[in-house]
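Protocol step 4 of 6.
Sequence for BRO1 domain-containing protein (Buddleja alternifolia) entered exactly as in the expression construct, tag removed. Do not edit the line below.
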Amino acid sequence: MMISYPGLSKLKFKQVLYQNVILASDSGTLEQLKELSSKRKAIEESINDNRFITDAIAREMSGGLTSRCEQNIQKLERYLPLLENLVRHVNLKGKNRQIVSWISDLKIRWSSVLTSSSIFHLQGSKFYQVNDIYFELGMTLFLYAALLRERALEVLSSDLVQSAALFRKAAGVYNYLAQEVLSNLHRTQERPPEATSRVCSVISLICLAEAQAVTARKAEENGNTGGVLVKLHYGIKEFLVEAIDILHVANKECKDVSSRLLDFILSCKTLHELKSYKHLAKVQKDEHKEIGVAIGVLRWALSNAKKFLPKEESWKLVYKQVIDESSEMLRKYEHENEFVWHEKIPLNDELPLPQAVKIVSIIPYQPQKWERTLVFKV
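Step 5 output, structure tokens:
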């Protein structure tokens, strides 16, 4: 039972024709620039639902992949090494005025899915143009990580191990983006939240929290005791507290980050905190035979959880279900205590606190670097 934040891959971007702007000195370089444009266009058409091929042809072109998400991941994995190679050759030329002019003329434009205005923009998507090749690399990597996360959600119901691994892989891409790519992006132009290091760090932590949530579900299926689940769910809460702290700083730097992102993180944090206390109450009753403590834990946790209510309807449904389950558990414990145990309920400051454990980590992103020579007319 997870709260979901879909749509991070719904980015839009305008066409770029590398070969029409960057002047090649030989036919090999020209072909590589054309290949870059072609592979980028294939991604654009698929992501923006502008492709003119049937599902059967798309499946055949991808080597038999049936998932649209997997097909798009494959397209990006074919484009990214070529783009990394272009970035490397552009950097070799340093601050060459001709290269700078070409990058500006490429008109690299991407929309955002994380701004408040992205939902209400009257003229359709707002596009950000940043005259920097690192903007293209950064937004492409953001899209790649978003699709990995989307695929993790796609396989969640059928393969928990694969889902957790995909969340960790997405976290690794977002971390690489925050630490290695966006630090090179010039700060002189307006850019979307997706192209800021702190926002990418926030989403990396969200992916880690989601990976641990899947791990907790797997642990529950494997019959692990409540003590393990207490620590796993409280560890998820800790990941999300860190994400909230970073997001507060990010909001000062990038004023237009949608409040929906914060509401999602707060909803997940409160949900998993409640789950942790629910398992803690079960441990106190079943293992320590302290039903009074269990009742005190549940009363405190429910009181705290009811102070917050998610804004999105689908999140409310999940949230309400966990609150109802915890309330029913409390009712049973109180009934049993009244007629059998007659234990005193401890004060709040006498109650035990959950311990957190973080057992998931990022899978580091290793960019594939294709060493192809590019020769420009400069």
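Step 6, annotate. Strands lie at 109-110, 128-129.
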